[in-house]
Amino acid sequence: QVQLVESGGGLVQAGGSLTLTCTASGRAFSENAKGWFRQASGKEREFVAAISWVGGFTYYLDSVEGRFTISRDNRRNTLTLQMNSLKPEDTAVYFCAAARSGAVTKERRDYVGWGQGTQVTVSA
């Protein structure tokens, strides 16, 4: 069973940066695509970014394109989301997730393993 643990959330002023890290353990995990989702209070969980198993193919939510960067280290089983130029509307609980296959995907239904989430709060 996949276990995913996020870290790195916190409080930051608008324009600042945060780096989220997700560490995976359990069954073989490195062959899955991985992604980040977020859920703001009272809203649906939404896709933020994803990265394929090989090739480094990435996909981003339009509103974070150019500000956020997703990366992975398969040897260490870690996933990272570098967030720059943060805005108050980025405030949410951020979740990392493992996809069913190695192909990059933004569809929530394609993800089969989830972390518990880490809070990111951006003040104006």
Low-confidence stretches: none
Counted beta strands: 11
In terms of DSSP E residues, the strand content is: over 45%
What percent of the residues sit in helical stretches (DSSP H or I)? under 10%
By secondary-structure content and strand pairing, the structural class works out as: mainly beta
Distance between the termini: 40 Å
The count of helical stretches stands at 0
What general form does the structure show?
globular
Order of helices and strands: EEEEEEEEEEE
Output mean pLDDT.
93
Oligomer: single chain
Largest sheet: 7 strands, mixed
CA gyration radius, whole angstroms:
13 Å
Summarize the structure.
With 124 residues, this protein is an all-beta fold. The chain has strands at 3-7, 10-13, 18-25, 34-39, 46-51, 58-60, 68-73, 78-83, 92-99, 111-114, 118-123.
